[in-house]
Amino acid sequence: MEESNAPTSKKGAKKAEAKAKKEALKAQRAAELAAAAANVTLEDDPAQDNYGNKQTTASLFSKDAEEVEIRSLDESHNGKTVVVRAWLQNSRVQSAKMGFVELRKGGNWNIQGVVMASEEEPLVSRRMVKWITGISPESYVAVEAKVKQPLEPVHSCRVSGLELHITKCYVLAPAPAMLGMTMAAASQPIVNFSDEKAQEGDADAGKAAKPAAETTTPSASMLTHLDNIAMHKRAPVQQAIADIRIQVKRIFRSYLEDLRFKEFEPPCLIGAASEGGGNVFRLPYFGDEAFLAQSPQFYKQFEIAGGRERVFSIGPVFRAENSNTPRHMTEFTGLDLEMEIKDSYTEVLSVLEGVLLSIFRGIQERCADEIETVRAVYHSEPLLLPEPGKEVRLTFAEAQKLLREEGPAEFANVRDDEDMSTPQEKALGEVVRAKYKTDFYVIDKFPETARPFYAKIDDAGTTVGEGVRVTNAFDFFIRGQEVLSGGQRIHNPVELEERIRAKGVDPESAGIKEYLTTFRQVGVPAHGGGGIGLDRVVAWFLALPSVHLAAYYPRTPKRLSP
Amino acid sequence: MEESNAPTSKKGAKKAEAKAKKEALKAQRAAELAAAAANVTLEDDPAQDNYGNKQTTASLFSKDAEEVEIRSLDESHNGKTVVVRAWLQNSRVQSAKMGFVELRKGGNWNIQGVVMASEEEPLVSRRMVKWITGISPESYVAVEAKVKQPLEPVHSCRVSGLELHITKCYVLAPAPAMLGMTMAAASQPIVNFSDEKAQEGDADAGKAAKPAAETTTPSASMLTHLDNIAMHKRAPVQQAIADIRIQVKRIFRSYLEDLRFKEFEPPCLIGAASEGGGNVFRLPYFGDEAFLAQSPQFYKQFEIAGGRERVFSIGPVFRAENSNTPRHMTEFTGLDLEMEIKDSYTEVLSVLEGVLLSIFRGIQERCADEIETVRAVYHSEPLLLPEPGKEVRLTFAEAQKLLREEGPAEFANVRDDEDMSTPQEKALGEVVRAKYKTDFYVIDKFPETARPFYAKIDDAGTTVGEGVRVTNAFDFFIRGQEVLSGGQRIHNPVELEERIRAKGVDPESAGIKEYLTTFRQVGVPAHGGGGIGLDRVVAWFLALPSVHLAAYYPRTPKRLSP
């Protein structure tokens, strides 16, 4: 549903109205002048109906010309007359009688267009050749053309075995003569992810980015990309990333639906900063205060209490963390699930392992083209996956031991009862890859010190380090970076209250009280689940230099637009 | 991803720790006492292994007993031993040797369980009969039972042709003896939707609710439902509504994916209150200010500018409107789409009409059971849909004329150049239903006065009333209530700036400037789209008395929990 826009005050409206009239007149005048100029060029050309600027294509094309997508063009079209809508990417004048254009649509599908003067029908004038080859790159055009086989394959185009001999060409949406960022620049790997306009280069980002090829087109910064959002999105590399992201969501959803999981929508606006107080956004709410949800954790559990058995959600979560790194965003998309447990929390672990492996294998299979497009810009090694049945699951203590024994010297003293740091995680990723030949693995049985209050303590009473108990909780990693966190939750209200107190949280505090109450009000079956960071899964799978490249509109402490 | 919980201050943590220890001791003592009491009852019973409270069901059941869902039970199970997990809904003692329980799972699937003392294997003691029939309703149990045919069908249960002769019964999650809201109460129609605790009854809500049957169980207020969220969700009527909502989303998505629409995720956090300033939530953002998106409008258009061709999104939108009615929420789910237009905006209208009709026909077909479950509580007439090819599309002027001529006398003077009020819309719904035999219709060509600045003005220059131009914009209605708003957007930056000024908005203002810039930076093809309110579609399709019933966690100006 859309909002009507209302002027804020009558006075302001009047003033704006006067200004508007003046400006509208000015704009109209400019438009008339432009139209006149266009007419001068075309009006005495016998081919004038075959080209020009148009608002609509209704009744412009031959009736027998089939409209096709570039991606669908194949040998069966050879010799036929077709209509194609596309972005005019490049043009080149060969002579006064001949020119070439490159047409692109659907990500990285492009084809060569040829425009050649002809005095026979269909008429193509020299002026028309000049006009077409003068169209600003990135204008949206509709052409009528005869499909022909070129003398030799057009290597610069994906559809290399066919070309379009253009007989009509209309500009539906003209691009300006100067673009804020060219397609060539938009297709270069981004090295600078800083949000600061003045500052050049960002050490962290710079280190991670590996330009695929030496090139003369300079790389634009992420800032320039976001300030030219349409060009950023049109670049084949971003189209490919967006398409891969779609598949990740789709596989997550369909895999779970096949296992009888039901989707639900947790709220974003919540009444209390229930999970950790520090990183939460607060806002005024009708004389009171509201918060933005940091995760759907409590709500997934309410669904289980409400008899929904197995649930998942896909939606935004928020972190008010002032971290200006290529790994952080203030808003990102969570893929979350929660399920009843019958006998053991490993049922949850297996579902999560299954869904992630299914996602990785699925996109390797379905998105081979897109992955190749991304790798041509951001080079990376394929993600090494374990053979079926040889998935790697280490306990936290086993992982720390591995790091102590086979990792870099600086980690020779890591403890089994303290959480891992990011550098430790990355180092472990390399050790695991060398030892087990996989970039994907699970670390289970985290110590209670490293987990929130709702994590279920191991029933066997296992302890690590100085008597710290372990939990039925785990993280999943790819390339040494965490993409999933999950585990069994406490479902017994007495046990839950005890853990809340032990973590130094007041069970009577806002949010916590309502949470506890739900467990006391009804019996809640044993359950567990996990949360996947969609942006990170996409970014780390592709080994992108920043998670911001995987997001549609990345939000950082310094960036809220577009 | 989950958040670790950190205590807010060291001092507070110490104090909380001391308190926690004390409380934990108390809780432990209580647990020990409860355990002791339970042991006293069971320890000298020869059948003691066949019942009791359990944390897990591992190795409790016979190896040959198949675990089945109640919904899957059929004649093929007759005579077999099965394991069933379910909510114990009711119990009844027949004699010291026999009792009945009602087991429920998967919304409204229930079956009768019989427990009969037996001295032969499998052993069922009288104490076991007493214990089972004494289990608090809404406890979560796992039973082992022999499936048998009852002497006559059990009319109170959906699985009426079979019953479970229970030989083992374990409580996995005990409900308390007193529920805050019983299942009987939770299954009554809600009449009072007020957020005020003191105030009884709400005129608007009360008028709309139509209890399906006279009953002695009193109806609980929406407040009581939300304060007992697990019981609210467990009620078959809410399970059915949730399942219908899932199908609506699923059909929306699959219908559009078949038409090559691509999903994307617009941001919630935005840098400017770009669409209408009044009803937007504001929040502090790292020394600056952020806003919560009121719609994905601008972002859908950026996707089109970015060459994504056809996009849709499903996600939360926010309105800071202090409206305490059963029609409003501060957070709801938008189903949005945007697409390139080839020749006419009616292409958009047709896709939207197609997707909504597909949703309505789809849920009538796929969710017949769920609809029946809802109607048993909230009575309604089936939604009348037009026959294929006989869809009703009226222009705004035609609709107003119809209302003047065939509507109630109070609307005899409605104007063609002023927006409709909610009572007008409802009255029109009745006129259309009487005349065209449909509850679903489109009103097209809204006057520019009733549409936001981005609405494209009709190319033919049509005017209504006192020279007001009409737009290529429309609303869709069911039962006289708007569920969709859409139309063609302006894609020419000169025209767009003119309309922005004409609406009294400053083109240099935050948000608007960036929006306009995108259209100037690149050529943007003609496009249009629409937004559907998911909560309203579900609520009005089922003729529910409040949209709050269709939401998972309704947010109102006075309610942010649970």
UniProtKB/TrEMBL annotation, chains A, B:
GO cellular component: a single term: cytosol
Region of interest called Disordered, as start-end residue ranges on this chain: 1-25, 197-217
EC supergroup of this enzyme: ligase
Lineage: superkingdom: Eukaryota
EC number: 6.1.1.12
Residue ranges, compositional bias (Low complexity): 208-217
Subcellular location: Cytoplasm
Keywords tagged on the record: Aminoacyl-tRNA synthetase, ATP-binding, Cytoplasm, Ligase, Nucleotide-binding, Protein biosynthesis
Catalytic activity line of the entry: tRNA(Asp) + L-aspartate + ATP = L-aspartyl-tRNA(Asp) + AMP + diphosphate
GO biological process, any: aspartyl-tRNA aminoacylation
Record field: compositional bias (Basic and acidic residues): 14-25, 197-207
Domain Aminoacyl-transfer RNA synthetases class-II family profile: from-to ranges: 244-554
Residue ranges of the TM segments: none
Pfam families in UniProt: tRNA-synt_2
Family: Belongs to the class-II aminoacyl-tRNA synthetase family. Type 2 subfamily.
Protein's name in the database: Probable aspartate--tRNA ligase, cytoplasmic
Originating organism: Neoarthrinium moseri
